[in-house]
Structures are given as structure tokens and as C-alpha cells.
Amino acid sequence: MINNDxxxxxxxxxxxxxxxxxxxxxxxxxxxxxxxxxxxxxxxYVVHPVAVADILAELQxxxxxxxxxxxxxNRRYHDYLRCCVKRIWQRDxxxx
Length: 96
Prior knowledge:
- By secondary structure, the protein is mostly helical.
- The protein has a domain at 4-69.
- The protein is built from four helices and no strands.
- The protein is globular, with a radius of gyration of 16 Å.
């Protein structure tokens, strides 16, 4: 899992105007909010949201970009995909 400093460095490599304070707060909030949660595999749940943040930073989609895509749009897209996968899983479980 990418750590806070690595994630901030990745974001600042293309966004010199990013503020470290809110990035630190968001990362630490995710760690604290999910500290007692585990995935079915036993891995800490926080691995997933941090991985999503890493992917968005890799694609440079964590803030407003040239295509007009915002972080809010990315969250909605993520939630939409998660719901689609859940529906497919439920359908497969029901009819298999």
C-alpha cells in the first residue's frame, strides 16, 4: 500500500499547487475511519480507498483536470462501478 508521503509526492509531481494539509488530513482520516475494518481476505479495508487514490493520482484525476473531470465525478464513477459489480455478483449467486 502506498504511504502518505508517496501519494503526496505523486500528486505534487504534476500539481505544484496542491496543498499538503488537506492531503494529509484525507489520508489520515481514511486510516482512522477504517482502522478496525477488514476485508473478507483479512487485509485491512483501508487498502482499497488508498489504492483508488493512488490510481486517480497516477491518472492525474484527483483534482480538476483539462477534461473537466473532478474528484466528485471520479467518486460517482467508482460508486457506479461498485454497484454494477454488486448486481452482477448477486445475479450470478442467485442463478448459479
